[in-house]
Structure formats: C-alpha cells, structure tokens
C-alpha cells in the first residue's frame, strides 16, 4: 500500500512543480517566446468572432470595373475630382483619400484645377506616406490636445513624408498618415495611432476618418502609457502607441464597398453616401497598397483604414491590458494543477482526452471573453502550459521511454528529414545532428519573370498555379533521390547526397534538372499557365563539400547545408539570365559528372571570380 501511494504521489508532485514552472515561464518569457504563435491565434480569434460594423463608413473602390470605364483605362485626377464632386452633392460628411498626389504639381493644369475645386467642396482628408528625410511637411495639421503627464512613444516620430501637391493640401480639410507598418511576419494587425513630424502630430488615416465621422471634436492624448480620448470614448493603445483593429471578413468588406465606376455612372443611390464618411482607394496593385491581414493574404490598404475607422466608431477595439499576463499565468497555474490531478487518477486515454478538453475550453473561454469585451487572452500560452503539465505528469505515470520516443519523432519530423530524426532517436547519447561534412550536389531553381507575374495576377490565382508547380517539381526531386531543403518565394532549394548517401548524385541532379526543365516547359503550355505567360524555370547546379546539420535553437530548427557549392549553385541559377540558358552547371559538377557538357565560356561570378560554366544543351 505504501509503495502504491508513493507511485501516485510522485507524478502529482511533478505535475504541481510543472504547473508552477509553466505559469512562471508564461509570465516572464511567454510574450517574446510565443509572440508569433500568439498573434496568429489572435488573428484567428478576430475572424471567429465577428466584430460589429459601423453604418457610418462607406468604401469606394477604384477597381477593374472602374478602370474599364475610363478613357485609356487610366484612372486619374479628373475621375477622382468627379467622384468627390458627386459625394459632395450626395451630402457625404467627409472623404478620406488613400491616394498620394505628389507629382505633376502644376496648379493650372485642368485636372488639378478640377481636383482642387472638388476637394474644396467638402471635408477631405489627404493621406501621406513616410519618407525618411523627406522635405514634405503635410498640411493642414489636424487638431489634437495633450493632457499631461503623457509618454509619447518613440515610434511616432518620423523624419519626413511624401504628401500631395501643396495646393491640394491647402484645399483639403486635414492631412493623415496613410502608411501601414506590418509586424515581423509582414501582417497588418495594428496601426501607428499618430505620426509626429517636427512639432506636429498627424493621426492615422482611418483614425482621422473616424474622428470626422464621430463629429470632428479634438482628440486628447495623455497617460503613461499613452491613451487616446475621442469624443467620450477612451482608447487604450499598445505600449508602442499602436491601435489594434479587427480585420473585417470578406462579406463585411463587400457590404460596405461600392465600385467607383458604379458611382460615376449613377448606378449607386446618392442616399448611400448621405451623412457618411467615405474612404476612397483601390484594390488594384498599381493604384493601391495590398497588405496581408487576418482576413485575407492581400487586402487593399483602403479597407484596412476602413477597419481602423470601424473599430474606433464601434468601440470594439481588440486590446491587451497590462494586467492580462498575470491573469493568464494564474489561469495556467490553476489549470495545470487540475490537469496534473486528473492525469494521475484516470486511464491514459481518458486523461489525454480531458487534457484536450481543457485546452478546447481555454480557447472557447478566450473567444467568449473577446466577444464580450474585445480583450485578447493568450490561450496559446495557457494551452502550452497545460500541455507541459500533462506531458510531465503522464511521462512519470506511464511508459516514459516509449512516450518520449513517440513525442520526439512527432515533433522533430516537422523540422528535420525522417532519416535524420530516426538517427537521432536511435542514438540518444549522440549530440544533435550538426557539423557533418559530406559531398553534396546543390540544385537551385527560379521562375523567370515571377515578380511581374505576381503583380498582375490575383493572389488566389497565383497561389493555385504555384501549388501545382511546386507539387510536381518537388515530386521530381524526390523521384531522383534528392531532398527539398526549402521553398523560398518562387525558388526551390534541393540537395542530392544528403542526408543519406546517393550514388552518382551529380548526374542524378543533372538528370533531375533536365526533367524539371522539360516538366516546367510542359506546365507553361497548360491552361491557366499559358494565359498568364508563366515564366520558364532557371536552374543552377554545383557540387562540393558542405556542412549539413540542424541550425537554430529553441522553438525552430532547420536541417540545411552550408558551403561554397551551395552559394555558387544559387549564383549559377542567376547566371542563366545573361547566358540565355535554362540550366547552368558549375565547373566541379561538370568534371565529376563525366559527361560531355557544352561549355558556355569563362564568366565572372560575383563572389567567386572567373570560371568556366557549362550547360547540358538546354
């Protein structure tokens, strides 16, 4: 009986210790360590729970339909002037323009005269862009009051701006910052509330649009950390002075948006704009900025500004309060203790099921809290703390070695090739797989004209084409015994003779390159690809000694190779541009292949000097 009790107490004690440790880690290190995962969860949360939509906001999109109705299919200042004039006649409260008219600043030019008059006919906000050291000082400066003490964030200070022509600014009601700065993953989740140039503070375009929509009173800044008071609403800003917003789903965007072409042709009832604040921009890449948000991969910047205005007007602003980390750590501690208690008293399958139920409950509770108060609770960190407790307790309670091996194989297989994982698991006393020198043949590919293609092709269509392309190209690499190291943008990086030995790896890489060339030329003739003039694939190959192994630490590992042959293969892929070839083979690979390859002469390769290059005739 005593032995039985000890066997039950030890896992519980370990679970309690793990609960305390998990809560402490979450409180002190959870922010920076889990920032990416947490932000992605918050993105999902803002899409699961629909934010309220203000009826005071309308977006006019200069879309493809609008361009088709314009002479020469070129939207210009004349059309923008007509649009603003129609809004003024319709009784719109204000207009925020997400275009920068910074060139062709002749005030006597007819289109400029028309645009100046149109801007003067109603309250118009003109946006500006950030320009490091730029000479522009946008005007007019919107009003803002300061209640001391106030801590102005360093991020707000900028050196200059690119603004519209001065006579257009003079005719406008106010100037506002139209630029958007994404997070580390380039996704737009928040906006810099104010930008300061000299002694003047400019709100974000969406914030200024909301101010005019709400009555146009002077906003107040104050607090440490800084807060913003607009009308009777107090808005808590992030530590860096940013304002979060919930990206509207596509259905909400479509409901508030009308085509500029329909407005000019009279197909939109003027009552749609009566006493409304209208944001004008474009979903076309050549006219408007397209940025990644939680609702779509590429969202027009005007819609982002509309989301910001909507957040302010509805008061539904996603926020992280300063006290939330402590609250989350306390939840992690209590939940961890419960998980540890349950895991030591129930069957394995049942305890795991209840643990998953606790995690689901945490996510559900976070969604409920967000729906009711717009507070963003870190369910990711709490869930990870619960998982940590469950794993620790279960490991001591059940078959430790078998469970550890299964977990390790499952986790590491997401980062490393299966063979590397197997070698690591089967030899637990060995160090991590790192620093292994071996001959490797590197194959790098690139799609010709991809930048142009990505600019003219809708994002969803582009992703569809790339999915097909990568699936077939990567399949060929595997067929010839290679390993796809990574896919970067439009490029595939592959190795042969890594991580396992591959006989005649140089020739197999060359054969694979020829197969890829033939395949991609066939792909280019397929329906969908030929319509968009999908570019040919350029390939570079070189062989040599490389160092292979795991790179990175903490939450992200990458199995990759480093060496001159790797870098040279990338350069040779680029060399196809001036050689006019599809496949460029380095001198060492040409020698080791033993084949009769066609020389394309001596050429200077950046970082490597002059060398003789070869191709297989393609």
Question: What does the model show?
Answer:
With 618 residues, the protein is of the alpha/beta class. The chain has 3 domains: 2-47 and 327-398, no CATH class; 52-314, no CATH class; 431-615, Nucleotide cyclase, GGDEF domain (Alpha-Beta Plaits). It is built from 20 helices and 25 strands. Strands 1, 2, 3, 5, 6, 14 and 15 form a 7-stranded mixed beta sheet that branches. Strands 18, 19, 20, 21, 22 and 23 form a 6-stranded mixed beta sheet that branches. Strands 4-10-11-12 form a 4-stranded mixed beta sheet, with no helix packed on it. Helix 1 runs antiparallel to helix 13 (379-397). The longest helix has 32 residues, at 2-33.
Descriptive terms for the model:
Alpha-Beta Plaits; seven-stranded mixed sheet; globular; alpha/beta; six-stranded mixed sheet
What kind of sheet is the major sheet? Answer: 7 strands, mixed
Q: What is the first-to-last residue Cα distance?
A: 79 Å
The amount of beta strand, in percent, is 15-25%
In DSSP terms (H or I, runs of 4 or more residues), the helix count works out at 20
Q: What does the overall shape look like? A: globular
Q: What count of structural domains?
A: 3
Q: How many beta strands in the DSSP annotation?
A: 25
